[in-house]
C-alpha cells in the first residue's frame, strides 16, 4: 500500500494547469509543457506545442487535424489505462465530444478524477459518459446553476424540423461549433428522420469527414456553396460555425431563419444578442441535474469545482455533506457551448 499523501501533493493547480508532481505531467495545460495529458480536442483544453501528449487516439487525431501533424513532439495514444512515474492513469469516456475522456490519477491511496468537460445526454456523435470512481472529483460547472435544466436533445431537433416544415420558402441556418456540436446536430437530425442533404460550411468539412471515418453516420453532406443561386437553398438546413454568421457567407441564403445550437440558448438575452430567431437548447455539457446526479452517484470524499459557476455547486455539496471547494484555473472561466 502506498503511503497516503495530501491530495494537493498528488494534483494541484499551477499557472500552466493542473500538475501531478509524482508523474511530472499536466492535465489540459494552457501553455506548452514537456508532458501533457489531454481530455479532449477543444482549443481551450488541447493546445499545440507540448513535448509529449497522452490522449485518446481520437483526440490525438483531432489535434493533428486542427493544428497540423507536428502539434507535439511525441504522441502516446491511451485506451483505458497507462502509467507515468508510478502513477496509474485511467482515461474514461466523458460524453462531451468524439474522443473526450475524464482522466483519473491514482497513487494507490487516492484517486482524483479530472472530468474535463462532460455530458450525460444522448449524443450519437461520441461514446457515452461513464462514471470514473474516485475519492476526489474535479468537475466543471459550466451550467452550474439550478436554472439550467436542458430539454431532451431530440425535442430540440424536432422543434427545428417543425420550423422547416412550416416555412418551406426559407432556409434554416444553424450555428454550431466545428468540433462536436455540428456533428451532433447532424447525427440527431438523421435520428429524427431528416434524410435530405445537409449543407455545411467549409470549416466543418474536415472534422465531419473524420467523424464519418470513425463510424458516425452523418448521411449526405454537401458544401454550402452548392446550388444555383439562393433559390436552391429554400427549405434546406445549413450548418456553419458561429463566426461565419457575421460574414458575407451568410448572405448567400434566402431569408434565413437564424438558429443557434447551444446550452446558452436557455438564456433569452444571449439569443437576442446574437440575433437568433430559433434558439436550440442543445448542450454538450452537463446541466444542473446531471452535475448533481454525477456527484451523488460517484459519492466522492471531496469535490473540486472549476471553470463555471463554482459557488452554487460548492454550496450544494456543502448542503449534502460533501467537502467542496472552487478550483479556479486560468483560461477556463467560461466554456463556449
From TrEMBL:
Signal peptide: none annotated. The keyword Disulfide bond does not apply. It comes from the Bacteria. InterPro entries: MBL (IPR050698), RibonucZ/Hydroxyglut_hydro (IPR036866), Xnuc_lig_assoc (IPR026360). The keyword Ligase applies. Keywords: Exonuclease, Hydrolase, Ligase, Nuclease. Transmembrane segments: none annotated. Its EC number is 3.1.-.-. GO terms for molecular function: exonuclease activity; ligase activity. PANTHER family: BLL1145 PROTEIN (PTHR11203:SF49), CLEAVAGE AND POLYADENYLATION SPECIFICITY FACTOR FAMILY MEMBER (PTHR11203). This is Ligase-associated DNA damage response exonuclease. It comes from Leisingera aquaemixtae.
